[in-house]
Amino acid sequence: MASYIQARFFNRQVEDSCPANRLMISKRRTRNAHAACAQLLPMENTPNSGKLDLNKPMMGTQQVPINVPAIISGKFGRFGGKFVPETLIACLKELEAEFNWALEDPEFQNELQTALRDYIGRETPLYFAERLTNHYKNEDGHGPEIYLKREDLNHCGAHKLNNAIAQAMIAKRMGLKSVVAATGAGQHGVATAAACAKLSLECTVFMGISDMEKQNSNVLLMKLLGAEVKGVEGNFKDASSQAIREWVGNLQTTYYLTGTVVGPHPCPSMVREFQSVIGKETRRQAMEKWGGKPDVLLACVGSGSNALGIFHEFIGDEDVRLIGVEAAGFGLDSGKHAATLARGEVGVYHGAMSYLLQDEEGQIIGPHSIGVGLEYPGVSPELSFLKDTGRAEFYSATDEEAVEAYKRLSRIEGIIPSLEASHALAFLEKLCPTLPSGTKVIVNCSGRGDKDAATVLNYQQYSM
Amino acid sequence: MAAATAPVSFCRAHISSSSTLSNPYSSSKLPFKFGKFTPCPSSSSKSAGFSVSCTLAREAPVKMEGKEDSDPALWQRPDYYGRFGKFGGKYVPETLMHALSELESAFDSLKDDPDFQNELAGILKDYVGRETPLYFAERLTEHYRRPNGEGPHIYLKREDLNHTGAHKINNAVGQVLLAKRLAKKRIIAETGAGQHGVATATVCARFGLQCIIYMGAQDMERQALNVFRMRLLGAEVRAVHSGTATLKDATSEAIRDWVTNVETTHYILGSVAGPHPYPMMVREFHKIIGRETRKQAIEKWGGKPDVLVACVGGGSNAIGLFDDFVKDKDVRLIGVEAAGLGLDSGKHAATLTKGEVGVLHGAMSYLLQDDDGQIIEPHSISAGLDYPGVGPEHSFLKEKGRAEYYSVTDEEALEAFKRLSRLEGIIPALETSHALAYLEKLSPTLPNGAKVVVNCSGRGDKDVQTAIKYLQV
Questions:
Q1: What NCBIfam families has UniProt attached to this entry (chain A) (predicted)?
Q2: pTM for this predicted structure
């Protein structure tokens, strides 16, 4: 059934160079924009009208709800797309149709809202970090105002569950019984395991063996939550590949729960959509708190899910600066980092075209960061696009700077941030002196750092 | 303060709360009205130091109130002297009396201070992350459904979602704001597992106060990561080697420090134990749990809960949930203690079941003591329930029959830990798991559709190593 719907959708697929696509990109946020985009397409069944009649039932299918957005190609300029083997195309189309349908289904939305509120604990506060603000004041008492979006307070301790719970609900809707996922730091693995336990789905998580050692506490959490954790030689990228392989082998029964905004379309868009609750709340809270918008949004970038989660809402607001901070590891020139947007080149990886860390022969360069969640050689195609168009700025922070920031926030605000979020916090050191007094800066505190205490302890002992 | 050494059948209490007896306001036998209390300028100088001894027979409970006995709304919790019935009070050295009175009057005046209340509400919302959800545990409810399809509805009050992962921070935040008002620069606290220590270190970092945490040397070894977290947050963690080097010894050491440094130092007690005004104050800071629950229950099903279940160590999370409902006689209040290796093994922490009345850490309450009045070392797999005493208000509620107290073994708690993780994807603290474990015995007895609210007082990430060892996952 679902395949009939998506077949018709694909007849209206937007071409890359189509003017509608450009319209789409600039009005990405609003549902109406999708419908508006669809209106620009030629209509097959009503030759006299320039309007798309979404109400007209398609042959052999159920009535498609009104205002279901037309499929976009999953391209962000030249980035994104669906570079996958033929076997996966049908699956991805089905997923896309389900996703779009779920977005429009009030029952799904209600269930999701309840889960976000009662299970995850949303909305998360927008917290004015008074002492951190004072720390960045100059001698005249001037400086920006620092706010933290407290994604660390979510159930499971990071932003990952926003996406995992929604996708697990979609898997259930599709009648699938088991879920596979890949995880780097383990946060996505824990979130997936929790969501699957709640929805009684079987769960298998793939994790790089070196990551399993570094984030052992998360491995234990996944097992307690009833997930099976399978070790893979290497790290996150290898775990991803293995998870995809497992999925391809069991397409009828298994759902691949992607944790971040990479991969073939519709994965980046889906994950971004579910994470965009962060930005939506932020807009409302900023209005309540100071009657305006933020001036600067700051987030760490591994693959980009938390960054897009907070940025997406504000992409259309040109007066809001979007700043992503990647992992510079031992330094950008050391060769041991994960700063994809700073040092990478465009290529195709895990099904999408994007920047990635590759050598001259096009082989993937193994990334490094003390923040395991940032250790990914690729990056979101949408972020690649925002970089190329100059809409967002990207910088990086070293391991050392991140550990300093970790300790700083703990000592000054009593909040222990994840090492990943610490990269965003580290950039405040360089950013704040450049900002006019009273600038409203919101840092996405994407996770809590209890899981990193042992790492920081070892790092200190090692560096002494 | 060491009146715990007295033999069991009676206790000689040197109530150096003689200052409260000679206090000019003692003529008012009114119930403790927070808004009306005016601080007495130099109560300590008036203390004549005469002692009062009370004789308590084991069998006959002392009735201090008359006809207000049966109506919970009329109970004085606590009365003017900080007593809940015969429990509670201020069994402390003279040097602490002034500090306690000062604390009491400061707390009293701040209760109605809108600036203080607004600041506290703001911190609870933006920093701690309140209000916490009341979550309908669908799969757990299904698990307890009987073959005929009937069963209670299980809800979880998600205190595990608070910043730092437990309910402890509600009290820590309130007390540190109080300390700032009192212009104290130095904060001390005791901790067993480290949760209260971390909560205290957290708020001290947030408000820029010096923080010293006393922790038993044995506990420090078992909870090395929590020790690191406290240090990361800028606190000094001092090892206590005396006695058995566990929580009760850390508490005694903290009290000793406070006696020495009372002018500059505020002692953030972690639970509803200790001398008045602590049990009352800590309860007041935690009662937001029950207040929110009442509101959320009305939103969700248009009524009150039928049963409230919470684990009891010192008793703070339980009192926090119960307090708002004590006057609602149709709401059952159930506290669950730690039965450790079994109530008859001698290795447990089931104070209200197996303890006897005495004085510990400044308050009269039930406690685990041997025939010589020496404290029996408690045991529980969960460090947070590993306390030989219990809050005096719980002792009072037990004696009044208003609340029921049961206990659950280590093994049952571990099973419950695993059960909630697998069924709901929520890993509860081992302390909380005791409350969840009691659902096994409770649910079959409840009518269809009974609304049960369990206080999910903390998350279990800190217990993962322990659990894995026992569960062999």
A1: trpB (TIGR00263)
A2: 0.84
Q: Where do runs of H (alpha helix) occur along A174-257?
A: 187-198, 209-214, 216-224, 236-249
* Rounded Cα distance, B214 and B192, in Å: 9
Residues B224 and B193: beta-carbon distance below 8 Å: no
Residue B57 CB neighbours (<10 A): 9
Which letter does DSSP use for residue A29 in this model?
Answer: T
**Can you read off the two tokens belonging to residue A301?**
């970038």
Q: What is the pLDDT of residues A131-158, one digit of tens each?
A: 999 999 999 999 999 999 999 999 999 9
Active site residue B104: no
Q: What are phi and psi of B139, to 5 degrees?
A: -70, -30
In whole angstroms, give the CA distance from residue B178 to residue A363.
60
A248-254 contacts, C-beta under 8 A, 24 or more apart: A248/A85, A248/A87, A248/A88, A250/A178, A251/A87, A251/A91, A253/A176, A253/A177, A253/A178, A254/A176, A254/A177, A254/A178, A254/A179, A254/A180
Q: Residue B16 catalytic?
A: no
Half-sphere exposure in the Cβ direction for A305 (13 Å, CA): 29
Which segment, A38-42, B49-53, B126-130, is predicted with the most confidence on average?
A: B126-130
Residues B319 and B394 sit within 8 Å (Cβ to Cβ): yes
Tell me the three state secondary structure of residue A419: helix
| Cβ within 8 Å, pair A121-B133 | yes
- The reported pLDDT for the residue numbered A74 is 87
**Are B331 and B342 contacting, i.e. CB atoms less than 8 angstroms apart?**
no
- Active-site residue identified among B316, B443, B457, B462: B457
- Work out the minimum CA distance from A190 to partner chain B, whole angstroms: 9
Higher model confidence: residue A426 or residue A26?
A426
- Tokens linked to B472: 């062999």
Whether residues A416 and B232 touch (CB distance < 8 A) is answered with: yes
B135 — contact with chain A (CB < 8 Å)?
Answer: yes
